[in-house]
Fold:
Amino acid sequence: MKEYISTLLLAVVTAAVPVLTSYAIGYIRQAGQRAQASTDDIKVQGYIKEITDAISDAVEATSQTYVDALKKAGKFDDEAQAEAAKRALTACIASISPAANAFIKSVYGDLEVYLKNKIEAEVRKQKKAEPATLALPVLESTVPDTKAIAAACAAATAAAVTQVSINQPGTGQTTTPEQQNE
Structure:
């Protein structure tokens, strides 16, 4: 009987190993393809984020360092606008990695044409956007928040009652010397 079970088990294993191996190899290949696709997507997402940040930062920096001063002086004309666009393009190209640069060229063709269009769109978007605020103003209320005051008082009272009941002598609880010194 023991020999019969060994022979049967050997036959099952012999038949099962090639089948399981082919499934395992197929699964490994699919996992590799998914990992490669995921890596490509992550790279593309990284390039897009890098390019978007570079365009936005270049427009903001040019606006802050060049455009704002000319606008205050009333000297922001068409020539100054062209110079601002040129400065933003130069700053943007300088801040994009070679890999992102190659990505733009492979997907969109001409780097400068692509970036000029995106810079113009970003300028328009920033013009329409509300000015950034660093903090919200604090508003003082003239009416006291009675619910918050009541909740705070109730919590403090509950904590005090709990602490007193824990430290009651004669309750069977002992305190260590460290607790008595506190």
In short: DSSP finds six helices and no strands in the chain.
